[in-house]
Automatic annotation (TrEMBL):
Organism of derivation: Ciceribacter selenitireducens ATCC BAA-1503
GO MF: heme oxygenase (decyclizing) activity
Signal sequence bounds: none
Biological processes per GO annotation: heme oxidation
InterPro entries the UniProt entry points to: Haem_Oase-like (IPR016053), Haem_Oase-like_multi-hlx (IPR016084)
Protein name: Heme oxygenase
Coiled-coil spans in chain: none
Length: 184
């Protein structure tokens, strides 16, 4: 799928903070580093997913449903003998105003992480982890690009969108993720 002008705009606007987040996530070359990654992901995703789950998506979103991972992340922690209660939570509030523009920016980050998960699932496999023993969320996230493709189509077709508001929401979401990983 070719990249639309809107996705290119978001990619360029968020590139520096996205790179900082990737560096913070690291390579998780051992189980303690992987647990830190899961805790960071859970601290990032749980508050946003909770808010999204109680938000009525705009009619223009059609049948699109975000990919929720927080429960799978908690199961992954439990499978590895770690307590979800010990997970650091980020204090950032990236979704204070849930207009369509902000939702699109936030979902750009959440759904876009599917693409990175395809690399991370291989890193987890190198540690002997798979869906049944600590990498369920990665398997769920990386096994099908359908949700990303549906979101990309929604993003590309959205009308009357303030691209700057959308970009600010994406930046805030990346900042929220970075905060969660730094606290993990």
């Amino acid at each position: 799928m070719s990249m639309s002008a809107r996705r290119q705009f978001l990619r360029e606007r968020t590139g520096p903070i996205h790179q900082r987040l990737d560096e913070c996530v690291g390579t998780f070359s051992d189980i303690p580093a992987y647990l830190r990654y899961i805790r960071g992901m859970l601290g990032f995703r749980r508050p946003i997913e909770t808010q999204l789950a109680s938000t009525r998506l705009p009619a223009q979103f059609g049948n699109f449903t975000p990919n929720y991972l927080a429960d799978a992340l908690e199961r992954d922690l439990a499978a590895l003998g770690a307590s979800p209660a010990a997970t650091a939570r980020s204090e950032a509030q990236p979704m204070s105003n849930l207009c369509a523009d902000r939702l699109l920016g936030t979902l750009y980050v959440l759904e876009g992480s599917t693409l990175g998960a395809r690399l991370l699932v291989r890193r987890a496999a190198a540690l002997g982890l798979h869906a049944g023993n600590g990498a369920e969320h990665l398997q769920k996230q990386s096994s099908d690009l359908g949700n990303w493709n549906a979101f990309a189509a929604l993003l590309d077709s959205a009308r009357e969108v303030d691209d700057e508001t959308m970009a600010q929401a994406a930046l805030a979401t990346f900042a929220h993720a970075l905060d969660a990983f730094e606290k993990a």
